[in-house]
Amino acid sequence: METLPEPLLVRILASLPAVELVLVCRLVCSHWKSLVDGTSLWLLKSQQEGFVGDDAEEGAVDNWQTLYFLNKRKRNLIKNPNGEEGLEHWVDVQNGGDGWKIEDLPGDFGKEFPSDDVHKYFVSSFDWCSKSQVVDLRAEGYWEELMDTVQPKIVVKDWYAARCDAGCLYNVKVSLLSEHEEVLAEFASDTIAVPQDNEGEWAEITHTFADYGPGVRFIRFEHGGQDTVFWKGWYGARVTQSSVTVEP
């Protein structure tokens, strides 16, 4: 191995899993450590897995290893976003009126969701319904130094709709919390009013947190809604495909 040209050795190492590279290969010798801590290896792995194009250059990113791991870990941190598991994983559930219900798309007087992967949604009632989740970033693999120094983007998305024959109210609030659950940054939408006799179309609301400062350890996501016609049953805001992602 000592006689291999460095570019060939980098290609061989790039074929190994990232965890093996960090926890095993960088301990072999000082040369391997410099390769694992360097730029070329992680640029190559990012290209191999389609995170960047083949024309990407080493100087385009400050830390290719961090970019690789952020892309590798990227996923929706909200559990059960569409109601496939009932209200499982949702906390602080407020069941106003007749409470939350899960229905199959498109539902009565509703429209299909833009993605074929989504089959269900939550629907609120004639009094305010809300629910929330708290994401533990360390438990999800986002270590403290990463959150404090890199401060990767935190992208929040939610989808809402009304029945065509009933108006509704909807809002969403997302808070970035410290170790002791102090609010370090927050996004709160206006309370959105959808009029009666609407088109029933699904609408997306999104927000990106950036440059939020050190100390973020948790993310609290909360949304809710109700109808504006006060009919018994489930004529209120429909919500689905909620997401929180940590991105490069």
Short description:
The relative contact order is 0.18. The longest helix is centred in the first third of the chain and has 10 residues, at about 65-75.
Kindly describe this structure:
This protein is of the alpha+beta class. It is built from six helices and eleven strands. Strands 1, 4, 6, 7, 8 and 10 form a six-stranded antiparallel β-sheet that branches. Helix 1 crosses helix 4 and helix 4 packs parallel to helix 5.
The total beta strand count reads: 11
Sketch the major β-sheet. Answer: 6 strands, antiparallel
Estimate what percentage of residues fall within beta strands: 25-35%
**Helical content class:** 10-25%
Task: List the SSEs and their pairings.
Blueprint: H1 6-14, H2 18-23, H3 30-36, H4 40-48, H5 64-73, E1 91-95, E2 101-104, E3 120-123, E4 129-136, H6 144-150, E5 153-161, E6 168-177, E7 183-188, E8 192-194, E9 203-209, E10 218-227, E11 238-247
Antiparallel strand pairs: 1-4, 2-3, 3-11, 4-10, 5-9, 5-11, 6-7, 6-8, 6-10
Helix pairs in contact: 1-4, 4-5
